[in-house]
TrEMBL record:
GO terms for cellular component: plasma membrane. It is found in: Membrane. The chain crosses the membrane at residues 139-157, 188-207, 219-240, 282-300, 320-337, 372-390, 411-434, 477-507, 546-563, 569-588. This is Bicarbonate transporter-like transmembrane domain-containing protein. Its main location: membrane. It comes from Cyanidium caldarium (Red alga). It is a multi-pass membrane protein.
């Protein structure tokens, strides 16, 4: 007589308020079927017993009408069942007490999911940083992070009448960066001062001056309230709203940040020509250094596509191009006689000693202000929360772009939680706030990228794309550790000319503009329709539709820039950034057809280009692959590699 053994799917989990067992037929429960993989994962956690022998011809009793206890690791089956629910092939398991809430509003759900996905990669994130690319990226990003810290620190000292200065920016940038890259979920994101935060701080100082409020105490309370709001947003999974952020918002926001860097660089260069006297020798030398830094850095960064020198040398020059440009131009400023002496170029305004502005204590006397000021800080804190929330999530979304082909999971909620902690610490010590820096983050990703150079029949020159990124925490931590060590060598930083930093701003701003579809479509305004590129959207939809979409995006960009540069409206600027998402969800849907929106605002395809049956790539042949400067790999099966570059 045959004996029936329980199958893997006979084990179910009722969503009851605390017991695990077989579901009763009179009790409405939701069950999750365990697959063989689940049983294997649980190991010996389930005690199975044979079913009783069923007489021949007897009806099979439904399995859910029997009741049996399960012995499981605490929380293990809930976690595994949620994995099956997320993948769509299992029942949804809910937690007692929050079953009535929508999934995105259940407290701590996003943080738990982020931890579950990201925790297995934590130690690997540190180990993978020991590569040649990490050294090059750390050198380049050290100056890329130091430049805005010194520049914005000097501007803040002027705006706040000495309440904050360069030392505060360096301390905050170093400590915040090391903590962020140790605790955050996406370590490729770089935190630092931004032009938007500087504009908000300037507006807050003006409000405090007009209302005769103590600036540092008000500043601290604004930061504490902001940290509390960010904490609540992280707990209640507010980062799920990033799903409504598309390339329409990304491209406009990134174009704004890139334009800010270019504007500050040009303004710094132009300021040197406004000095008194007819002799403009120093100004022209400064212009030469700025352009030299930009040209050398950009030329070397693209040198991997050159035919000259061996591949390993080209790879080295490309990775270290920005650092070579900074060191060479700084050395030229020191050695050339016309650039020394009394007519020397302006240098970085860095203090010689480690001391806070005005010799104030480290802790801000927050309790010395009346309750009315503490409540007043709520209003600007709401606006700052909007700015930090959008800046952090949009920057992290850009870093996680499918075009970068990252392999490890994102963790938006953990990143927001860490930002809340950093904002709180900076506020109580009266230090500048640090948030996700878009320009530095994108340059960080591109510095760690493994790229391939390919060319299709329609291309006149080779093109480059990413195939992988060296994802790690070590580079970001080392960059900010170097910033902390720089506090012991402040006199050396005084030797770097301001013109070199202006050239670095030009380089980073121009580098960030590459790959921005919005800026690319603006150029298509002036292109002959018969000469549109093969991969332009005009090849799929009418040019009139593309131009109308670009004009709407350009109008949003101009509005953002206008509100940013007008001092009276800077405080409300963060709320306007959020309006980009509203415009995308309302106006764009009404004005454009779904087919056009799919082409202009669809996600970037993450998969590799398709191949035909003959094994040749549709869009062209790969002619070079770069992998950490250690040697040319065997290539991707089915792709043709050209050797004429060697």
């Amino acid at each position: 007589m045959a004996v029936d053994r329980p199958s893997a799917c006979a084990w179910v989990l009722p969503v009851a308020a605390g017991s695990y067992g077989w579901a009763s037929p009179t009790r409405k429960t939701q069950t999750a079927c365990l697959s063989p993989q689940t049983s294997e994962w649980l190991g010996g956690g389930i005690r199975r017993r044979r079913r009783p022998i069923r007489p021949a011809g007897a009806a099979r009793v439904p399995v859910h009408t029997r009741r049996r206890r399960l012995s499981l690791p605490a929380g293990a089956l809930l976690l595994r069942a949620r994995d099956r629910s997320d993948s769509g092939d299992g029942a949804s398991v809910t937690f007692p007490g929050v079953a009535s809430l929508p999934p995105h509003l259940r407290p701590f759900r996003g943080l738990r999911e982020d931890w579950r996905r990201r925790a297995p990669w934590y130690w690997r994130d540190w180990a993978d940083g020991f590569t040649t690319k990490s050294v090059a990226a750390s050198l380049f990003l050290y100056f890329a992070c130091l430049a805005p810290i010194v520049a914005f620190g000097g501007l803040t000292a002027q705006i706040t009448n000495g309440a904050m200065g360069v030392v505060e920016f360096m301390v905050s940038g170093a400590v915040s960066g090391m903590l962020y890259h140790t605790l955050a979920g996406q370590p490729l994101t770089i935190v630092g001062p931004t032009g938007l935060t500087l504009a908000f701080t300037a507006s807050l100082y003006k409000v405090c001056s007009v209302a005769r409020l103590p600036f540092l105490a008000t500043y601290a309370w604004v930061g504490v309230w902001t940290a509390l709001f960010l904490l609540l947003l992280a707990i209640f999974n507010a980062s799920f709203l990033i799903r409504y952020c598309t390339r329409f918002t990304d491209d406009a926001f990134n174009a704004l940040i890139a334009a800010t860097f270019l504007y500050e660089a040009v303004k710094s260069i132009g300021r040197s020509f406004q000095t008194e006297g007819a002799d403009k020798t120093a100004a022209f030398f400064g212009l030469s250094l700025s352009l030299g830094t930009f040209i050398v850095g950009r030329t070397l960064s693209e040198f991997r596509q050159s035919r000259y020198l061996r591949r390993s040398v080209r790879e080295f020059l490309s990775d270290f191009g920005a650092a070579i440009a900074i060191f060479s131009m700084t050395l030229a400023a020191q050695l050339l006689p016309p650039l020394s002496g009394e007519q020397a170029l302006p240098r970085l305004q860095v203090p010689s000693t480690l001391q806070l502005a005005g010799g104030r204590p480290w802790l801000v006397p927050m309790l010395s202000v009346p309750p009315s000021i503490r409540l007043f800080a709520l209003f600007p804190a709401v606006l700052l929360t909007v700015l930090f929330f959008l800046d952090q999530n949009i920057t992290t979304r850009v870093v996680n772009s499918p075009a970068h082909r990252l392999k490890r999971a994102d963790a938006y909620h953990i990143d927001l939680l860490v930002l809340s902690v950093l904002t709180f610490l900076a506020s109580i010590f009266g230090l500048p706030w640090m948030c996700a820096a878009t320009v530095q983050s994108l340059n960080h990703v591109r510095s760690l990228a493994i790229t391939e150079t390919y060319m299709s029949e329609a291309d006149r020159a080779p093109r480059e794309r990413m195939v992988a990124v060296v994802e790690n925490r070590l580079t970001g931590f080392v960059i900010h550790l170097a910033l902390a060590l720089s506090l012991a060598f402040l006199p050396l930083l005084q030797r770097i000319p301001v013109a070199v930093i202006s050239g670095l701003f030009l380089y980073m701003g121009r580098r960030m503009m590459s790959g921005n579809d919005f800026l690319r479509r603006i150029r298509l305004f002036f292109v002959d329709p018969a000469l549109y590129p093969d991969d332009s959207p005009m090849r799929h939809i009418r040019p009139r539709t593309v131009n109308a979409y670009t004009a709407l995006q350009l109008a949003c960009f101009v509005l953002l820039w206008t509100l940013k540069v007008i001092p009276q409206t800077t405080l409300f600027f963060p709320a306007v950034i959020g309006m980009l998402m509203v415009v995308r969800l309302t106006a764009v849907r009404r004005l454009f057809r779904p087919e056009a929106i799919r082409v202009l605002d669809g996600e970037i395809e993450a998969e590799r280009p398709s191949r035909e049956d003959n094994g040749t790539r549709d869009e062209g042949s790969v002619i070079d692959v770069w992998e950490d400067g250690l040697g040319k790999p065997g290539g991707v099966p089915g792709e043709r590699y050209s050797t004429d570059m060697y």
